Please model this.
Amino acid sequence: NAGVTQTPKFRVLKTGQSMTLLCAQDMNHEYMYWYRQDPGMGLRLIHYSVGEGTTAKGEVPDGYNVSRLKKQNFLLGLESAAPSQTSVYFCASSGTGNPPDTQYFGPGTRLTVL
Amino acid sequence: AQTVTQSQPEMSVQEAETVTLSCTYDTSENNYYLFWYKQPPSRQMILVIRQEAYKQQNATENRFSVNFQKAAKSFSLKISDSQLGDTAMYFCAFQGAQKLVFGQGTRLTINP
Model:
């Protein structure tokens, strides 16, 4: 059982370039999330989705876009990368509920913007 | 807004010792979950233990247990018989109706 996977694991971009991070989960979870983790800090929520075709902003959404065209996939896009977006990005998924069920995380993507 | 505070940036103990990591949180919600996640050098976020707020009984997972004090909004993690593989960053997290909020983390080192 793969759980949550992320592609790619590492990426280096130049300022102004664009890229898309892919997250896939095989647990049939409704909810999916994108976080960033900066050095010495916990995770901060960028965007999330409560179901196929829906997305919502989290704590730090500026400079990012997301799409959830299929239930098992959640894409994070950077249209014009900036050095401030150098970070480690984590995807997570969870079941539904109030509060939402436990989140399970992917292995992370280390992004460097030069 | 919910906040999670871990007051110990770093801790270090000898192998086989018991160590307790502290966490406090602030919320006005009554129904929520609390978690401890472990992040080893591989960066993978690994769920250690979960506590439902409505349960009075403290959660336990093998060598890991929590002391959940709801009135005091305190949620500490106790690691018994610590092992070298327990070396990692540990994050306390709060899940309410809206989102999962993380503390700043505690870097735990287990020395041989």
Summary: Chain A has a mean pLDDT of 94. The longest strand of chain A covers residues 87-94.
